[in-house]
């Protein structure tokens, strides 16, 4: 029964250890999958950042082109208005000349045909051609402006879509970070549980060492073990020394209780043997008396005499029971062997638990480093976005100021040209 119990006690921790190993393998596989997912998300995020930067640069170029086209359009409008004013002035002068010619039908002074009426149609044709060219250029510029505005709308829509995707990716990344934090917390809890199990196993090993030390005080085989245990206790002065001493004392009193129990069982066995021998002697004496009174002489055969003699010898003179020291030695040697076996199992479990805890600590450190790296990347990306927004606002403000200054200069130049003409 004791062997069955020990086998059951050995199989139960093995099953627990197998469960722990399966859970650990599952967690490791999940961690690898999560690492791959995080790397994929980081790559996608980097691609989206690059696309966003490219779109931002293209947007700046289109804005600059639109600003330049608007400036040219204003120049052309001012030029066309100036040409229209010149045309109106020229037409008014021509009408005045025609009216003056019609009024002076028979005048004394007939002016010779000057070159002005010959030059006026050529100038009008040139001005008309220039006006047509300017109108065509203005139409082309307006069509270009419309195209640029459409492209700008498309780019703004694309930027809004990319911003939505980026927000979605950031949300997914936050979800992944929360999930990883939860898994890190679960791993930390698991690590704490394993550490508690390690402490329990260490205390169990200490109690087993104490039992073996108290049980083998009188045996010469375990003096070296006891000496090693005492040296270890003297060396390892930790906070758990008091607990170990208490467990040692409890093991000592447990051993004393077992010794008393063995003594009681030995005394009970000796008393039962003495009672049986007395009853057999009384029965034989009664039988001999009854046969003598009847005058019957009974002569049993040799076999019966021999068997009876052997039975009497076995009952009256029982075998010498083992001494107290021998019983204690055998019992505690068996216990010591069992404790050594359990100690070896516990040490192997402790080593496996230590390896698992070390691996889990490494995984936790890697996960914390990855989280720190992600936080740094997010902070750097946020700073880069802020810098880009500031640059965009400054460039837009500078372009607007330049355009306003150029328009003022063009207007002043057109006014000067009009005044000169």
TrEMBL record:
One of its GO terms (cellular component) is membrane. The keyword Lyase does not apply. Residues 86-119 are annotated as: Disordered. Keywords: Coiled coil. The keyword Magnesium does not apply. It comes from the Eukaryota. Residues 18-131 form the Protein phosphatase 1 regulatory subunit 21 N-terminal domain. Residues 145-179, 336-391 form a coiled coil. This is Protein phosphatase 1 regulatory subunit 21.
């Amino acid at each position: 029964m004791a062997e069955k119990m020990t086998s059951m006690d050995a199989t139960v921790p093995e099953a627990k250890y197998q469960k722990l190993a399966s859970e650990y393998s599952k967690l490791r596989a999940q961690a690898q999958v999560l690492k791959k997912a995080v790397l994929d998300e980081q790559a996608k995020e980097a691609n989206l950042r690059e696309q966003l930067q490219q779109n931002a640069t293209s947007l700046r170029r289109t804005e600059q082109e639109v600003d330049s086209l608007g400036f040219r359009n204003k120049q052309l409008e001012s030029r066309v208005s100036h040409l229209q004013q010149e045309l109106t002035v020229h037409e008014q002068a021509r009408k005045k000349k025609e009216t003056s010619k019609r009024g002076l039908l028979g005048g004394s002074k007939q002016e010779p045909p000057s070159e002005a009426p010959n030059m006026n149609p050529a100038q009008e044709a040139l001005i008309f051609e220039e006006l047509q060219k300017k109108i065509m250029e203005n139409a082309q510029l307006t069509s270009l402006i419309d195209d640029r505005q459409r492209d700008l709308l498309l780019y703004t829509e694309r930027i809004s879509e990319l911003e939505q995707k980026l927000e979605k990716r950031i949300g997914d990344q936050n979800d992944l970070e929360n999930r990883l934090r939860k898994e890190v917390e679960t791993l930390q809890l698991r690590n704490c549980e394993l550490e508690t199990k390690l402490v329990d196993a260490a205390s169990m090993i200490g109690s087993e060492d104490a039992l073996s030390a108290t049980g083998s005080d009188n045996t010469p085989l375990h003096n070296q073990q006891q000496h090693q245990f005492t040296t270890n206790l003297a060396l390892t002065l930790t906070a758990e020394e008091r607990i170990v001493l208490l467990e040692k004392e409890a093991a000592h009193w447990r051993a004393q209780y077992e010794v008393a129990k063995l003594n009681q069982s030995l005394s009970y066995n000796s008393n039962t043997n003495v009672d049986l021998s007395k009853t057999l002697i009384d029965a034989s004496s009664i039988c001999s008396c009854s046969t003598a009174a009847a005058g019957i002489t009974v002569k049993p055969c040799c076999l019966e005499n021999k068997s009876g003699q052997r039975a009497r010898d076995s009952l009256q003179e029982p075998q010498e029971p083992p001494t107290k020291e021998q019983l204690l030695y055998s019992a505690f040697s068996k216990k010591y062997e069992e404790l050594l076996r359990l100690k070896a199992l516990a040490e192997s479990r402790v080593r496996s638990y230590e390896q698992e805890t070390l691996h889990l600590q490494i995984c936790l450190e890697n996960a914390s480093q990855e989280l720190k790296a992600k936080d740094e990347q997010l902070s750097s990306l946020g700073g880069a976005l802020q810098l880009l927004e500031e640059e965009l606002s400054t460039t837009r403000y500078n372009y607007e100021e330049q355009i306003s200054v150029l328009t003022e200069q063009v207007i002043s130049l057109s006014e000067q040209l009009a005044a000169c003409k």
